[in-house]
Amino acid sequence: MNQPLAGYAPAPVTARMENHGDHMLKVALQTGNDLLARVGSMIAYEGFIQYEPNPPAVRQIARDWATGEGAPLMKCSGDGLLYLADYGANVVVLNLDGEGISVNATNLLAFDAGLSWGVERVKGLAKFAGQGLWNTRISGQGWVALTSRGEPIVVDCGGGEDETYVDPDALVAWSPNLKVKGKRSFRAQSLIGRGSGEAYQMAFSGQGIVVVQPSEDSTDRLRVRG
């Protein structure tokens, strides 16, 4: 029985965070190097690992989440291997080396607790959305895991004059140094979403990347709030 299942066995640990297949994240936890992960994302673990939902650091940041832009988070600590997933979504692992990433909170799976993070207003969009759009910005030295509804594409904006346009419902993350603005087309009375006739897009320009998922699920879009 073990022989036909051998191809699914865990691979040797080579990094703090890595994929196990396309839809699962493996994290090597060590004492003193805690992790913040989406509540309910743990599917298995080995060793001695403790979980603390909504820890004080998260509660402090969450005061800015008036309408739930942030995903519920738990602190994972201890020694062992931790496996995370989010309903079979693809997992994308990033190793930040002093950079930052701006993430749609519904696509945030896990990140090192030592990274700097918080909720920020997306500049350049308030006049289109009326009240503004908000996202989660993460920066520093450490690991971040994102989810994508299907295999994503990473677009390099390149720094040229051309802009990259993205449906907000398909947007996963982008480099925070990119310039962002809104663009309306077709029906101006409709702003966001699959049913709007693609009436609203986000335009990115500058040097950096944009991560886009092959899904226009409106539950994954950036949220509007005042």
TrEMBL record:
Lineage: Bacteria, Bacillati, Actinomycetota, Actinomycetes, Kitasatosporales
Descriptive protein name: Uncharacterized conserved protein, AIM24 family
Residue ranges that the Swiss-Prot or TrEMBL entry lists as coiled coil: none
UniProt superkingdom: Bacteria
Matches recorded under Pfam families: AIM24
Signal peptide: none
